[in-house]
Amino acid sequence: MTSLLPDVRSTRRWLALGVLALAQFLVVLDASIVNIALPVLGEQLRMDTAALAWVITAYVLAFGGLLLLGGRLADRYGHRRVFLVGVAGFIAASALAGLSSGSAMLLAARAVQGASAALLAPAALALLTQLFPETRERTKALGVWGGVAGIGSAAGVLLGGVLTAAFGWQSVFFVNVPIGAAVLVAVPLLITRDRAGRPSRLDLPGATTITAALVAAVGALSSVEQLGAAHPLTLALAVAALGLGTAFVLIERRSPAPLVPLDVFRNGNLTVGNLVMLLVGAATVALFFALSVFMQAVLGYDALTAGLAQLPLAGALVVVAGLAPVVIARAGARSTLIGALVLLAAGLVWLAAAPSDAGFVAQLLGPSVLIGIGLGGAFVTTTQLSVDGVEGGESGLAGGLVNTSQQIGGALGLAVLATVAASRTESLVASGASVPDALTGGFSWLFLGAAGVALAAAVVAGFSRSGAASPR
């Protein structure tokens, strides 16, 4: 009997991997490049700091909320097909964002970008795992994947500064169009076959409830800063998030074709990998948002200088992501991951000590490099854990889960840590501190909070099976 499971074929696997990684580059580039442009964008569109956070959150919510559905669509209709649809949507939404004349149009375009990324990201990772089914080659491929993601971060912080200074904030969105077009042309030529999976019902109730639960949760956390924890709207959103989350679990238990079969979490490394990615996402999204604003609003850097100042972090991430497969093979996944997370936490604590007149070499360079080393090792190892032992028919689901964990963590982490930072800043202003010192104090608390989250991730990583990601 002929198998109906996804069957990917390519005569040039490593070149195909490069093109798939280029699509991941788009997703990562978009996050870092937009961060650099936020202050200029906010000034021109008259958006305050809270509104600017939603430029990130609108994307992350749509991305994280729809990733599981995107992964299931890829498993059902074919990973290559869904991947290409996602890339096309991402290109269109990027163009729309660049043409935005107001905040409402921009936020809508960012949400469409996120929804499109929710289609392409899990499909791309599923294609990778099927192109490289043998563990040794898959680990190398994931090293390339992580390295390209790091290059996306590096290119984003540099291009964000250059493009914003030379052509305006709109150009940080328009740059996605030619890159995406190249991916659209190359993938059908390099991946020659991708059969759809077994026909099944789509779990639309599950997708709807989990997306609504995420929106309510982030809305509740965001409203704490604006309205207070005891405000009726804050409490209503919190109750809605809890109720919708509970409903999602019940739906998944009873659905004949669940969005997330709960028995998938019997895979211990998949479960640990997703929990760690949730926490790492919470720390890093808040970090990059705060670091860009700190450099420009407090230290007085322009967009180009802020981009150049973040290159050591991104460069360290690139180098370590490329070396991570070798370290994993020798030391095992668990030791590698715990070590990377401890380094990340140490770098964040170091960064939290930076004063309002911080010098780059004296107070920013060291922690930036340490953070980059930690992130490079953490992302590659966590991704490997999250797809370890997953069958081909559920590779889209696995890709959706790990990306969902990262984006959900990012949305929640930004909401919580930005609220902590804002509260600390307001307290310092009320006590008579200058605005630069008050902002610095708020960002310091944010960085310390992110360090605590990274240490919590290291504790969770201790429950993974040692050496599970090493070559077999």
Q: What would you note in describing this structure?
A:
There is one protein chain. The protein is mainly alpha-helical and 472 residues long. The protein folds into 2 domains: 8-202 and 257-461, MFS general substrate transporter like domains (Growth Hormone, Chain: A); 203-256. The protein is built from 16 helices and 2 strands. It has helices spanning 13-45, 49-77, 79-98, 103-131, 135-167, 171-174, 176-190, 204-227, 232-254, 268-298, 303-309, 311-331, 333-352, 360-387, 395-430, 435-461; strands at 8-9, 193-194. The chain has a two-stranded antiparallel sheet with strand order 1-2. The longest helix has 36 residues, at 395-430.
Show the helix and strand layout.
Blueprint: E1 8-9, H1 13-45, H2 49-77, H3 79-98, H4 103-131, H5 135-167, H6 171-174, H7 176-190, E2 193-194, H8 204-227, H9 232-254, H10 268-298, H11 303-309, H12 311-331, H13 333-352, H14 360-387, H15 395-430, H16 435-461
Antiparallel strand pairs: 1-2
Helix pairs in contact: 1-2, 1-4, 1-5, 1-7, 1-10, 1-11, 2-3, 2-4, 2-8, 2-15, 3-4, 3-7, 4-15, 5-11, 5-12, 5-14, 8-9, 8-15, 10-14, 10-15, 10-16, 12-13, 12-14, 13-14, 13-16, 15-16
CATH topology value of the largest domain: Growth Hormone, Chain: A
User: Can you count the helices?
Assistant: 16
Strand content: under 5%
CATH architecture of the largest domain: Up-down Bundle
What kind of assembly state do the chains in view correspond to? single chain
Please mark out the parts with pLDDT under 50 across 5 or more consecutive residues, or reply none: 1-6, 467-472
Rg of Cα set: 21 Å
Class by helix and strand content?
mainly alpha
Helix content: over 70%
How many domain regions? 2
